[in-house]
Amino acid sequence: MKNAYITKISKFLPNSPVENDQIEDKLGFIDGQKSRAKSIILRNNKIKKRYYAIDENGNVTHNNAQLTAAAIEELCDANFSKDQIELLSCGTSTPDQLLPSHAAMVHGELKNGNMEINSASGVCCSGMNALKYGYMAIKVGQVNNAVCTGSEKVSTWTKADFYQEEIEHLKALEENPMIAFDKDFLRWMLSDGSGAMLVENEPKGDTPLKIEWMEGFSYAFEMETCMYAGGEKLENGELKPWSEFAPEDWAKKSVFAIKQDVKLLGENILKKGVDCLKEVYEKHGIGPDDVDYYLPHISSYFFKQGLYDEMKDRGVEMPWEKWFLNLEHVGNVGAASIYLMLEELVASGKLKKGDRILLHVPESARFSYTYAYLTVC
Predict the structure, then answer these.
(1) Structural domain count of the chain
(2) In a domain, 339, yes or no
(3) Residue 12 has pLDDT above 90, yes or no
(4) DSSP states of 182-250
């Protein structure tokens, strides 16, 4: 088996950062009114800046494939061109279309010749799953390099126009024209952007990171759906897909809006995460003492203290000085978040040879978790 190294990391964040008081100017006011939930959610998540692929006039500046291709272009220099990519592996929660696959559309943007492509679906773990596919392809010697990406284009999914027909439908029924909290919640949480990693079979570059191992877990066998789009959650916990709704109901019920069962999230996301973290530690014979930098993808700073407390209560406390987060000034970029965190850590110049990095990515869709353990070469 060969070794796999992350030799370069890049990012692309579209347009200028959007401050908290600018969000509704960008996304629009639902029914012309300010959100009642906005201030509460922003106070808890502590996000101050995020990025949208929308210009000053509300026009789309980039689709998801273009965001991803832009990050990949940032990987390229005199030593590595896009024509040298052997494998392209892309993960996202928000592809531009149902078909073709996201990776196929990114490849179409790159226009760099024939190569293998892979698309990882899902939510936040899709970016890590894209990385794992590239990691495994290099481990078995199928390719010498892989470009792996995580990206999101969520702004158009959360614009006010997306909910307008539902509001009009509620008014026609003489019901309260207010978007449910499970839909409004995520409008103040999510951000656009992309990250890319070049993974190679040799430790090249200024700060190569050896991928020691990657592990994934799913609790879908015992947990109902928590975060979803393209469906509606029923009272019995089952998810009714968009294809089983009449077309006229897609807009009336905002079927394609991103939603989250906030109660289910709060009760389970941390507990399940520490359950499998302990399994990872036991399997690989390591613990918090074997980690120099801990990069957890958290959707909100609301969960930061809770995650620390859960680990402490379960005997795997991670000291605060090992945590590295950038949520406050980048936003929650879903599948791209872990790429953006690692890129910022490498660019900080803090890393030294021998440092050990633990990546921890949860996904609330149906409670999945992915981990990666890296060492600085």
Answers:
(1) 2
(2) yes
(3) yes
(4) HHHHHHTTB--EEEEEEEESS--SSS-EEEEEEEEEE-TTT----EESSEEE-TTS-EEEGGGS-HHHH
